[in-house]
Amino acid sequence: MEFFSPDTRNKFKIALGWMNKWACSRTYGLGTKLPWDEQYLIESLSDSTIYNAYYSVAYLLQGGVIDGSKTGPSGIKPEQLTHAVWDYIFLNGQYPADCGIAEDVLAKLRKEFKFWYPVDLRCSGKDLITNHLTFFMYCHTAVFPQEHWPKGIRANGFMLLNGAKMSKSEGNFMTLVESVEKYSSDGTRFALADAGDSLDDANFLAATADGAILRLYAQIKWIEEILAAKDLRENEEFADRAFDAEMNKLIRQTEVHYERTNFREALQSGFYAMQSARDTYKLLAAERGLNRKSILKFIENQVIIMAPITPHFSEHVWKLLGKTGSVRTAAWPKVPEETPEEIVIIQQKDYLFTIAHTFRIRKDAHMKPKKSKDNKAAAVPAPTKAILYVASAYPEWKQKVLTFVKPMFEAGAFDSLADEKEEKAKEKENSKKIMDFAASDAEIKKHTKKLMPFVAQTKDSYKLQGKSVLDLKLSFDEKEYLSNNVGFLKRSLEIPDVQVADADEDMLAKERCSPGQPLIIFE
Q: Which residues make Cβ contacts (< 8 Å) with residue 303, sequence separation at least 6?
């Protein structure tokens, strides 16, 4: 079965371990009398957890009249529902010719049951894992053939309100109606999705609901401005391709999160990360303007993937886009499978923003007032020129070190540990392995003082950029790429003159920079 969480599966295993101690009958309360000794009642949970099957045919038997006072559309009377009739509907039994019900009528009930069964997903609270839901599994496996056993159970925690348990007596309480009246339906749904999906208690935050209203309102106003804009670009450039690749990646991620019923993760990728991708695109395309096709694709795709969480917002924007019908019936965006080209273009975009951020930090450090001999801080003027030195390859000794440590990184040797003592012991073990390797190589021994700082720098870069930092060469021409994006770097650094140079032309630069880690010199 699919439990959507290892914690849920483990709790079921524990419950199944002691369930044989649960009494199968009792002497009080509501329930079905034990046929051979009517002073006992069958334990209610073992008698009540396959009602999902009845849901599939209830409308034909009752027609919406819950108390059974009227006969449903099928015309079947309660007293006609014998064991043989139910066996025909639920267990592929033989048609009971003496039941007084036409075979085509019973066949319709059987068809309805088979259409809806097995149960794809049962949602319930974590407190029912050790009782109701365990019986739900037991009773289904006892009564039905395997093809009708439940496929999945999704358990969730309780609901906190602003980090505290809801309590009427303490005033920390809110009904669903009150939340909708205060925060709107979409604001409430947004905060509920953000509250959490695991067995841990979900936390409904008023600040999140308030923020959702502002974010959605701001998004609508921005969309109205875009739709009214007359200066959107038509030709495609790198910024558009990078934005398109990022959108495709996030759409794929959001689809997986929805399928796993992880609504918080779906909100993170489908809204927050999509907004971030849009903002990044605006910065990257600032010099030449936004592409009409790309920005309209963003708007349309986002309202579709956000429709399960914010249906009213999505419906409103759907109409602004001039779409017919409802966004609820729109197909999920079709995006191609991830390609090597898409991976590279996202790496290029991430690389550009990472180094721009690093360069801004170095610019601030460069402009930090310097103290003179008389201990007075002298202001440093803002640089008017910057030279970016780019290395086409690592020095030989660094290539050897990266080749050696790459399997260690992949095996998790450099992953952080919660225990401080274990962390230090692991660092000591890693250092010994690297130093022993270095001692056996004459080329690396020449750079012993630089060895561990280089490994430490690689470890920090690995955390930020992932395994690509271990590659001996980049997947793209770094110098050409930076040269093509000098305009972006000028705006980002607020420096009018930015030049890109080959590190091989400067001995100091050659030693201080590596592929993917250019050196910047301010003048």
A: 313, 314, 317, 318, 321, 327
Inter-axis angle of helices 238-259 and 340-366, nearest 10: 110
Q: 509: closest CA among 427, 395, 413, 366?
A: 395
Indicate yes or no: pTM above 0.85.
no
Tokens at 500, concatenated = 């890109």
In whole angstroms, how far apart are CA 336 and each of 220, 291, 454? 28, 20, 39
Please name every residue paired with 387 in a beta bridge, in sequence order, or none if there are none. Answer: 499, 521
84-122 pLDDT, tens digit per residue, is 999 999 999 999 999 999 999 999 999 999 999 999 999
Domain architecture of the chain: domains with CATH: 6-156 (no CATH), 181-329 (1.10.730.10), 396-469 (no CATH)
pLDDT tens per residue across span 11-55: 999 998 888 888 888 888 888 899 999 999 988 887 778 989 999
For 327, phi then psi, to 5°, come to: -65, -25
Cα 128 from Cα 452, distance rounded (Å): 53
User: Reduced to 3 states, what is the DSSP secondary structure of residue 184?
Assistant: helix
Proportion of the chain in helix, strand, coil states, percent, rounded to 5: 60, 10, 35
SS3 2: strand
> What is the rounded distance in angstroms from the CA atom of residue 303 to the CA atom of residue 311?
8
- For the four alpha carbons of 461, 465, 467 and 472, in that order, the dihedral sign comes to negative
Q: Which two tokens stand for residue 401?
A: 């070190």
Cα(492)–Cα(321) distance, rounded to whole angstroms?
33
Alpha-carbon distance 273 to 19, whole Å? 45
Question: Taking the mean position of all CA atoms in its chain, how far away is CA 345?
Answer: 22
